[in-house]
Amino acid sequence: MAVLLKRLLQSARHPAASGRPMGRREASLGTDPGAVVRVRFAPSPTGFLHLGGLRTALYNYIFAKKHQGSFILRLEDTDQTRLVPGAAENIEDMLEWAGIPPDESPRRGGPVGPYQQSQRLELYARATEALLESGAAYPCFCSPQRLELLKKEALRNHQTPRYDNRCRNLSQGQVAQKLAQGPKPAIRFRLEGEAPAFQDLVYGWNRHEVANVEGDPVILKSDGFPTYHLACVVDDHHMGISHVLRGSEWLVSTSKHLLLYQALGWQPPRFAHLPLLLNRDGSKLSKRQGDIFLEHFAAANFLPDALLDIITNCGSGFAENQMGRTLPELITQFDLTRVTCHSALLDLEKLPEFNRLLEGPDTSFTQDMLNSKLKKVSEGLEGTKHSTVMRVLRVALSGQLQGPPVAEMMVSLGVREVRERIQKVLSS
User: Fold this and answer.
1) Which of 211, 213, 232, 335 is the 20 to 30 Å CA partner of 419?
2) Which of 207, 277, 202, 284 is nearest to 245 (CA)?
3) Which helix (H) or strand (E) holds 71?
4) CA distance linking residue 244 with residue 236, whole number of Å
5) Pair 346, 297: CB distance under 8 Å
6) Could you read off the pLDDT of 99-155 as tens digits, one per residue?
7) Quick one: how far is CA 393 from the chain centroid?
């Protein structure tokens, strides 16, 4: 019976899986059968997990699972002054509550740990040393007071604050003298040369000439902790990340990261920047909104599937929006090439409606509609009679050989309960 149910589910979920030609964008994803897909969700534990972070984590998770890859949780906790007690544990707790647990994480471990950046300082130090030796980086002795004055002066003149690269051309003798005199310097990366163009899997071809608008960025602070720019490059390389799916606010920084990859002699991953998730009125989601944190929805007894469904329903990445999709359906239907660069408006007032659809009977289907669909599925199973399929489904749903029509039971039970009962038989 389990074999037949598996065939039945596969036939129902993949009606058009026979030889769809691969489009140009899809072919560029690097997800051919021989490729290893590894993605990461890398939040900072400076706050608890909210809907914006959940959306980024979800898209990483479903992309990984669609391509039989790995979903990694990495905590970017290098800003030690802003850490919130309990936030690191909360992030992993909420991912598990939402049904999208990481394959590798601080809690679960894995082959490329540790998974907290504060425990990986030696890796960043080695990368920095290599950049210093090649001349791609240099020590900066500017005091915080001088940097603050530069910032205030730029703002007073209505200019974008930027470092003036004062320490870039210090001689070896000057560097040695300053090292002997004063506090430990920060390390800056030289933004020289033309930034490489790159094809973002959502926004298309991009190039940002960061050297023309920015000063040389700090990559290693004087306390030995890296900044985001160095840490994410080093970690993505050593963790074997194949695709970086992150928020669109990092799109402009990608050229800077590609220059770091180039200077270190490493192959970069593919990038896909996800558009912003906005409030219904078009404003950006903020951590100051207490009702966007996942504990709020868990405490209100919302189903995790309903939350995931509404996040994807208001965005893109699917052939069409429809209510009532569960996580396995999201994985099956997701297509990164369908993600658009338009921001998604999140209407949380509709969440109870999504919750009811997954929680209660599936009133969107009639018995006649289901009978027609079941007949088509049976016709697609060569060598299997329709009566046999109905008998197997009846046993799976009720445990009885006789009873009400299968379509009637499915309408009464609802999508969620039907799926759970079938999965229970498959796993037994």
Assistant:
1) 335
2) 202
3) strand 70-73
4) 8
5) no
6) 999 999 999 999 999 999 999 999 999 999 999 999 999 999 999 999 999 999 999
7) 36
- pLDDT per position as a tens digit, 340-368: 988 888 878 878 877 776 765 555 567 77
Q: Does 114 sit behind a cis peptide bond, omega within 30 degrees of 0 on the bond before it? A: yes
Q: How far apart are CA 212 and CA 190, in angstroms?
A: 12
Distance CA 314, CA 325 (A): 13
How many other CB atoms are there within 10 angstroms of residue 357's CB atom? 22
Tell me the pairing of strands 198-200 and 243-247.
unpaired
**DSSP-derived secondary structure letter, 240:** T
The conformation of residue 268, written as its DSSP 8-state character, comes to: -
End-to-end CA distance of the chain: 11
Name 227's Cβ contacts closer than 8 Å, sequence gap at least 6.
78, 217, 218, 219, 220, 221
Contact status, residue 253 vs residue 217, Cβ threshold 8 Å: no
Whether the model clears a pTM of 0.85, i.e. scores above it, the answer is: no
CA distance 57 to 77: 17
Q: Which helix (H) or strand (E) holds 200?
A: strand 198-200
Catalytic residue among 287, 375, 376, 385: 287
In 164-208, alpha helices (H): 172-181
Query: Of 282, 266, 340, 280, which is closest to residue 310 (Cα–Cα)?
Result: 280
**Would you tell me how many other CB atoms lie within 10 Å of the CB of residue 290?**
9
Is 287 tagged catalytic? yes
Quote the distance between the C-alpha of residue 348 and its chain's center.
Answer: 21
User: Which of 146, 231, 139 lies closest to 186, judged by CA?
Assistant: 139
Structure tokens at 134: 């090649």
